[in-house]
Each structure stands twice: as structure tokens, then as C-alpha cells.
Design brief:
- By secondary structure, this protein is α+β, with helices and mostly antiparallel strands.
- It contains 13 helices and 39 strands.
- It has a nine-stranded antiparallel sheet. Strands 29-28-27-26-23-22-21-31-30 form a nine-stranded parallel sheet.
- Helix 7 (500-518) links the parallel strand 26 (475-478) and strand 27 (523-526).
- Helix 6 (454-470) packs parallel to helix 7.
- The longest helix is centred in the last third of the chain and has 23 residues, at 613-635.
- The structure holds (2R,3S,4R,5S)-2-(hydroxymethyl)piperidine-3,4,5-triol (DGJ).
- (2R,3S,4R,5S)-2-(hydroxymethyl)piperidine-3,4,5-triol (DGJ) binds at residues 337, 367-368, 412, 479, 481, 527, 529-530, 546, 549.
- This is Alpha-galactosidase.
- GO terms for molecular function: alpha-galactosidase activity.
- Keywords: Glycosidase, Hydrolase.
- It is an enzyme of class 3 (hydrolase).
């Protein structure tokens, strides 16, 4: 039993393998947070909170009257769910307004349940699995008639605790939710660093670490998507925490819309995290009898450093969040986007597929431009019928020919969008989000469909059900190429316009849910102008997401590095593209491009017909190599060895099989140096007592005729103990050239 309730002290203690989470009811019935951290016993930690006078922070009535001595202020209570305007001046979890316009709520204990299994949230993605035990604690505001059910899903062996909140209006009057966060977590003591993943289009998830101060830090998005700019994942860690040591807490909303995580350090030095839907632009009318579910948050706590935190999230997302059973596994894909952009016909696509098939590629993906009037990005979105000017005879003959090559066929869609110049927009202008009386704000010349309208979701369900039933399609790339403005639904009354952002994302989830469950054999890859919606919400439906429109292998190092803190390599869409690179103009050796793309779902995005014979033979070898490494890469433990932001001259990362039977080292030299310093590697995740043999050692892109020549060949076949490799390490020869890379596979041969 991972959840215990001690009736004597009214204490809930949740235990995972390495952490404990504790709450206690105070004499008034508030649910107080006592502890989250390294594993401790069940004894109450109520002693952590000495009552003291908190100056201008007001007290509860029962503690403040003339005949009462003492102080008990909501402003210092570590409440699991507190609301605005009742004396807690910190960021609160909820902001509720009654029918008479009175802002304020106070949630007091009502009842609790402990149940086996995971909980679900209506219309929202959530983690699943039998290895979970769920605690739900009902708190109630008797004045409002508002019940809040707080969920705690404890995945004991995985060190993950999920949280969510569902609000029920049990009164006979409408209540207005101006904020309904998913969770509040107080860390009353300690000095913390915050790690966040900011970015921009083509430069997503750049890791940034800073000390928390006495202020409020916010990571959020108001773009209608989780965004390129602020990924919904935040880590708090001890100031000296590193990859292998230190306490770390991960906060990951399972949500793809406007998210917000506020981290406040108050006047007492206590840190509070409030996370969930962004309160700006949000206002939900909760009718009598209705309920509102706030999205799930995945919390993870470890004292073994950032690397361990990441590995726990990787496993959890792969095994407990991602529901899609179709997977790219060791299949390599080719996508025509950077090869042709909009300029293609069936012959060009077939020629790319033919060459790819001859090299071992298993999946041909036809990107944007195959439908409607779509020769550029100015028109056609919404008209999901084939463009027969480009694809003579339609999709079927092309798909048939590609299947005849022994390949699967995949296709690009952008369901949530509509072009002004499209039949769909001409027929249903009110299906787009636009403000009455104003010209629309366009992004990539397109408008956003109002996914809050059930008829829009139904229409799209029909379109794509038809596409997938009438054609043998095994893969879908689901794109989304602009952020939302003019957020106004022509179908909702004025007082419900504050619901549009959230209803939109519920519509997206409904469509994803219908299509992924109707077509379970189809592999869905998410995309939003690259990685603009790379989040746990989307990963519940799609097992992989296009990481970035930036395919430059060197820039990808920092993008994939940042992404790896929360998300598994099996989810990171990564392709080898042409050089000079289309985004940066840089030239990186083909071998190194392969090494970087192999730390993702691996594919190609270039016209293979334009490669030399030598390059084609390298591509063939790369594909075979990836296929043999795929299980290790996709399900192995991932270790970051360097931080690209620290501007070392090389960047390294490693995979190790969970049973330590094999491991794969990857190194890229990013700043060629004169007389380079020794490049010293310390392997991770091995069995110290075992003997490992170097099965393969590939040096690619190095300047020829220098000391590294011949080293790779000599290295293969050598044996070392795990202890040698991990503790003494391995030194590479001096590497010269533009971005050379090294990949070393070792395998256990015995003890
Ligand atoms: C943005 C995506 O990230 C690209 O890979 C490509 O699919 C284009 N959209 C197509 O419009």
C-alpha cells in the first residue's frame, strides 16, 4: 500500500520507492501540505509549522477574536488547494466568484477514498496503469456549495505522483471559475534552482537554470498551444544538484493549451508551485450540477540528480502516458518536405521513395501540399481532398506503388486550420476564430478553426476517417502552424468566451482520441511548426513529435538536449537533412548528421537522388546501424554527458540497456580546436564487475591523415571492465575536422 491514512493524526502519507509526500488536516479541516522529498516514515511532520505572529497577514476568525491568543494565518499555511481573497496573499490555486459576485472560497475536508488503479479525467489525457494507487480527497466550501476533489495517483515503483483537481458545483446557482489550477505544492524550506525550457520557432526547449529569488517566476503560454516559447515542464532542484546527485522535483502538466506554472518564494522563504491552465483569458461558468476537470500534472521527485529525474520521466511517458500502440520502432522514414516543399508531383515522390526503399527506408511520408488548391501556404487548408493536378489519378495509385516497393505510406495533415482561400472557409466562415467586426489576424496566411464547436470536430472526424478508411495509410503527421489570436467563438454566448481556449484543446483531444482509437495501426506523429506543442498532453495520443523545424545537426544538439530533460528519445522526431542546411546554411558531415538524428525517431528529409554514390552507401550503412541500435536507443536509459550551453568543444550523450548488457556512446565535436585537449569519456549505467567488448567504433567526418585515423579500427574488439569504463573512463584521440563524431557500441561479454 503506497497510500496511508493515520486517523489519529489525520495524516495522509504517500510513499513511492524513493520519495514520500505527506499532508495533514488541521483542526479547522484545511488540508495542509507537510512534506515532499526523500523517503521518510509515516510519522506526522506537523511540527514543521510553528505558529507565529505573521504581522500583517490576517488570521482565521476563530484564532483572532479578542479572547483568543495566537495566530493562524491562511497566508502561511501550506494548503494543498487554497483560493484567492481569503487571506492567502501568495499565488493561489483557485479564484472563484459566486452568483452574487463575491470572490472567495475556503475548502475544508469532507471525505477521502483510496482506490487501486489510476483515475481518469473526462475529456483530458491522463496516465494509466494498474501499478498505481489513487487517493482522492474531497474538500468543500459550504458557503458556495463547491466541492473540489483532489486526486493523487501514486506510481510507487516509478517515483511519480500524478495530481489533478475536479470541481463540482453542488449549489443551485452558477459559479464562475476565474482560475482553477490543477495543483499547488509548497516546499516550505530550502533554496532552489529553477530549470525551464524556453525557445522560439526552430530553436525550441533551450534549457535555462537560475536561482529562485523572493519573487514570482512564471512559465506559461497564452498562444493557445503549449508553445515553442515556454515548454510546460519545470524542474526545481537543489542549488548544487547535477546530473548524478541532488534533490530534484519535476512539474509536468499533461496539457497542450494555455498552461501556467507559477513559482513563488514568499516573505518566509517558503516556495510554492501552482500549476495548470493559464488563468489569463480563462473564465469558466460552472452551472449547478456541472463539474470542471483541471488537467493532470506529473510530479516526480528524486534525490539522485537530474539524469535520474529524466530517466524516470522517459520511462513513465513511454509506458504510462503514451497510449498509441503503433510505433516507429526500428523503421526508418523519409519525408519529402525539405526535398521538394510544395513543388512535387507523383513522379518526384515516387522517385524519392524508390531510392529510399533501395537503401532500407521503410516509410514514405508525403508532407504538405497534396490536397485542395495548395501550391504554397496561401490556400487550401480545410479542403481535405486530393489535388489531382499534382497527384494524377489521386492518392490511391501512388500509395499502391509505394506499397509495392515494400514501404509503408504516411501523409501530412493540419486539421485545426483553414485558409481564407478554401472551400471550407467560404462555406463556413463562422467556423474560424475571428472577432466580430474586425479583420482577422493571420498566421502563415491561415485562420484557426473553432475546435470548441462540436460540429467542427465532427466534420474533421468525418474527413480524416474517410481519408484513413479509403486509403492504406500507416502514418499521419499532424501539424499546427500558427498560434491563436482573435479567440472568439461565434457559437458561444458572451459570458462563455473565456472558455474558448480550453474548449478548443478539449476539441483537439476529442479528435485525436477518435482517430487514434479508430485507427490503432496508424502511427501518429505530432508537429506544430516543429516542436511548438511538444508536451505530455499530446504525447498521450501521439508517441512521437517533430522536435523542431531546425534540422541543423549542431543546433539540434541543444534542442534535443533540452527536450531530453522531460521527454524520451523515442518521442523526438529527428531527421537527416541536406547540406548546406536549409535553416542555418551550415555543412555538417553526413555521418555526424546521422549520429544526431539517431538520438530520435530517425529518418531522412532530403532528396536521396541528389546524393553521391559514396553518400548513398553511407546512408545504407547508417540505416542498418540505426536498425540494430533502435531497441537500445528507444528504450535504453539516456545519460547526458555534457551541457551544450557550457560551450565545451564537444557534446556527448549515452544510452545504456536497463540490464546493463550493452551501451552506446555518442560524441560530436562542436568546436574544432588547434591542438585539442584530450576528450575524456566516463561511461554510465554499466555493470562495474562485468567485462565489455567494443563491438563497433565509428569515427565519422574527421579530417583524414591524422592521429584518429586507424584508432576506430583498433578500438573495436578491445575489452574493458565496466568499472574501468565508468570510473577511469576512456580517452579519444585528438579529433580534427568540421564536426566529426564518434559512436561506440559496447556489449557485456561476461563477468
Ligand atoms: C511545419 C512542419 O514543422 C514542417 O515539417 C512541414 O510539415 C511544414 N509545416 C509543412 O507546411
Amino acid at each position: 500500500m503506497s497510500i496511508r491514512f493515520d486517523e489519529k493524526t489525520s495524516t495522509f502519507t504517500l510513499h513511492t520507492r524513493a520519495s514520500s509526500y505527506q499532508m495533514q488536516l488541521d483542526p479547522m479541516g484545511h488540508l495542509l501540505h507537510l512534506y515532499y522529498g526523500r523517503k521518510i516514515g509515516d510519522a506526522s511532520n506537523f511540527h514543521l509549522y510553528p505558529m507565529a505572529d505573521h504581522g500583517f497577514s490576517p488570521d482565521f476568525y476563530a484564532y483572532a477574536g479578542p479572547s483568543v491568543r495566537g495566530s493562524y494565518s491562511p497566508d502561511v499555511l501550506p494548503q494543498e488547494y487554497s483560493a484567492a481573497n481569503r487571506g492567502d496573499f501568495r499565488v493561489t490555486a483557485a479564484d472563484i466568484v459566486s452568483a452574487e459576485g463575491a470572490r472567495g472560497a475556503e475548502f475544508l475536508f469532507d471525505t477521502y477514498r483510496i482506490q487501486p488503479g489510476a483515475y481518469t479525467l473526462e475529456g483530458l489525457p491522463a496516465a494509466f496503469g494498474d501499478d498505481c494507487e489513487t487517493l482522492s480527497v474531497d474538500l468543500r466550501d459550504p458557503v458556495l456549495g463547491l466541492r473540489v476533489r483532489l486526486f493523487y495517483g501514486v506510481y510507487e515503483a516509478r517515483d511519480v505522483i500524478t495530481r489533478a483537481a475536479v470541481l463540482f458545483n453542488e449549489s443551485d446557482r452558477r459559479l464562475t471559475l476565474e482560475k482553477a489550477a490543477s495543483a499547488c505544492l509548497d516546499l516550505p524550506f530550502g533554496k532552489w534552482d529553477m530549470i525551464q525550457f524556453h525557445g522560439r520557432h526552430a530553436m525550441e526547449r533551450q534549457m535555462e537554470r537560475s536561482h529562485l529569488g523572493r519573487d514570482i517566476r512564471r512559465v506559461g503560454s497564452l498562444r493557445g498551444a503549449s508553445s515553442h516559447h515556454h515548454n510546460p515542464f519545470v524542474i526545481l532542484c537543489e542549488r548544487d544538484a547535477g546530473e548524478e546527485y541532488g534533490s530534484c522535483y519535476g512539474v509536468m502538466p499533461v496539457y497542450s493549451g494555455n498552461h501556467c506554472t507559477d513559482i513563488e518564494t514568499d516573505f518566509n522563504g517558503s516556495t510554492r508551485v501552482v500549476t495548470g491552465i493559464h488563468p489569463d483569458g480563462f473564465c469558466w461558468q460552472l452551472e449547478p450540477g456541472a463539474q470542471f476537470a483541471a488537467p493532470q500534472i506529473l510530479f516526480c521527485c528524486t534525490h539522485e540528480g537530474l539524469g535520474e529525474l529524466s530517466r524516470k520521466y522517459h520511462r513513465f511517458i513511454r509506458e504510462r502516458l503514451c497510449r498509441c500502440t503503433a510505433s516507429q520502432t526500428s523503421e526508418v522514414l523519409i519525408n519529402n518536405w525539405e526535398a521538394t516543399y510544395f513543388n512535387f508531383d507523383q513522379d518526384k515522390i515516387y522517385a524519392i521513395a524508390q531510392k529510399a526503399a533501395s537503401l532500407g527506408v521503410g516509410l514514405m511520408v508525403l508532407d504538405d501540399g497534396w490536397f485542395g488548391k495548395r501550391d504554397n501556404d496561401q490556400s487550401g487548408l480545410g479542403d481535405w481532398f486530393v489535388n489531382t493536378d499534382k497527384l494524377k489519378g489521386g492518392l490511391a495509385p501512388l500509395i499502391e506503388k509505394i506499397h509495392a516497393l515494400g514501404m509503408k505510406f504516411g501523409i501530412w495533415i493540419e486539421p485545426e486550420m483553414v485558409s481564407e482561400d478554401s472551400d471550407l472557409y467560404r462555406a463556413h466562415p463562422d467556423w474560424a476564430l475571428t472577432l466580430p467586426g474586425r479583420t482577422p489576424i493571420l498566421g502563415r496566411s491561415q485562420l484557426v478553426l473553432d475546435m470548441s464547436r462540436p460540429e467542427v470536430v465532427d466534420y474533421l472526424t468525418d474527413c480524416f476517417t474517410r481519408l484513413l478508411s479509403e486509403n492504406r495509410i500507416e502514418y499521419i503527421k499532424w501539424d499546427m502552424n500558427r498560434n491563436m489570436a482573435d479567440v472568439y467563438s461565434h457559437a458561444l454566448p458572451p459570458e462563455r468566451q473565456g472558455e474558448v481556449f480550453h474548449r478548443y484543446i478539449l476539441g483537439v483531444y476529442a479528435l485525436l482520441d477518435r482517430l487514434t482509437s479508430r485507427f490503432p495501426h496508424v502511427l501518429f506523429e505530432g508537429c506544430a511548426g516543429g516542436g511548438g506543442r511538444f508536451d505530455a498532453g499530446m504525447l498521450a495520443y501521439v508517441p512521437q513529435f517533430w522536435c523542431s523545424d531546425n534540422t541543423d545537426a549542431i543546433e539540434r544538439l541543444s534542442i534535443q538536449y533540452g527536450t531530453s530533460f522531460g521527454y524520451p528519445v523515442s518521442a523526438m522526431g529527428a531527421h537527416v537533412s541536406a547540406c548546406p542546411n536549409h535553416q542555418t546554411g551550415r555543412t555538417v558531415p553526413l555521418g555526424t548528421r546521422g549520429v544526431v538524428a539517431m538520438s530520435g525517431t530517425f529518418g531522412y528529409e532530403l532528396d536521396l537522388n541528389k546524393l553521391s554514390r559514396k553518400e548513398l552507401s553511407l546512408v545504407k550503412k547508417q540505416i542498418a546501424r540505426y536498425q540494430s541500435y533502435a531497441p537500445l536507443i528507444r528504450t535504453g536509459d539516456y545519460y547526458r554527458l555534457t551541457n551544450p550551453a557550457e560551450a565545451d568543444f564537444w557534446h556527448g550523450w549515452q544510452f545504456a540497456a536497463p540490464d546493463a548488457s550493452e551501451a552506446l556512446m555518442n560524441v560530436v565535436v562542436v568546436h574544432p580546436q588547434g591542438n585539442p585537449q584530450p576528450l575524456h569519456l566516463e561511461w554510465k549505467g554499466l555493470d562495474p564487475d562485468a567485462v565489455y567488448k567494443v563491438v563497433r567504433c565509428e569515427l565519422q567526418g574527421a579530417h583524414p591523415g591524422l592521429p584518429a585515423d586507424g584508432w576506430a579500427k583498433e578500438c573495436a574488439g578491445k575489452t574493458f571492465t565496466g568499472a574501468q569504463l565508468m570510473y577511469a573512463g576512456q580517452t579519444l584521440p585528438q579529433l580534427f575536422g568540421d564536426y566529426p563524431s564518434v559512436q561506440i557500441l559496447i556489449r557485456k561479454t561476461g563477468k
